[in-house]
Amino acid sequence: MRHTPHYLLLDHDEIRRLARENPWMTIVSHTAAGIVASHYAFLLDEAASTGDDIVLIGHVGRPDEKAHELGDHEVLIIVQGAHGYISPSWYAEGDIIPTWNHVTAHLYGTPEILSDDENLQALSDLTDHFEQHVVNPRGLHLDPEYSRRVARGTVGIRVVITRVDARAKLSQSKSPEVVASIIGHLEGEGPYAHAALAREMRRVHDPRDS
């Protein structure tokens, strides 16, 4: 990412929150054949992610594990949080330059390939994580043999993050009055309303409101 020290996100608790709330991630590998990118859901390994540690568990569909050369080298996993257009019409009179606010983390690590049993458990956990919010949840435990056959088409991975480059660009350079205006418009009903981005701005500018 562009070198913007004043927008650095250094709090690992916040980075973990970002990963927890935005599980659909992009995995990028620099392979012998060139750059490869794929999109998959990852879950934060809550038990292992303490202190400065961040550990992600996920899977790829075969043959993406070969395309990415998983386990052979470091990969980049991109976590994209709330983001959106910020109109200069929300600024003070005379300010005409728009911007794009965002919360983004680039996480680096070398994947560990999970065993078949570990992968099946990871897939079960992933399904249960999302199914817990529906009225009649379904899980892999309802048909273990079928689930095991389907799991053979995937490869589970565990990524211990060794490097982090994260940004929270949320109008930190603007006056409190302009920040309030931006949040108000994001929480409104206009074409660029974005309640989730407004919440991220409140976390930075007035944590009491987050």
End-to-end separation in angstroms reads 26 Å
The number of helical segments is 6
Q: Low-confidence spans: pLDDT under 50, at least 5 residues?
A: none
Quick one: CATH superfamily? Electron Transport, Fmn-binding Protein, Chain A
State the name of the first-level CATH class: Mainly Beta
Structural class by helix and strand composition: alpha+beta
**Helical percentage:** 25-40%
Could you report the average pLDDT, rounded to the nearest whole number?
96
Number of strands: 8
**Overall geometry:** elongated
Largest sheet: 8 strands, antiparallel
Task: Output the strand order for the largest sheet.
Answer: 6-7-3-2-1-4-5-8
Domain module count: 1
Description:
With 210 residues, the chain is of the alpha+beta class. Strands 6-7-3-2-1-4-5-8 form an 8-stranded antiparallel β-sheet. The chain is elongated and about 65 Å long. The protein is built from 6 helices and 8 strands; from the N terminus they run H-E-E-E-H-E-E-E-H-H-E-E-H-H. Helix 5 runs antiparallel to helix 6 (195-205). Helix content is 29%, strand content 31%. A hairpin with a 2-residue loop joins strand 1 (24-31) and strand 2 (34-44). The protein has a single domain (5-172), classed as Electron Transport, Fmn-binding Protein, Chain A (Pnp Oxidase, Chain A). The model has no long low-confidence stretch (mean pLDDT 96).
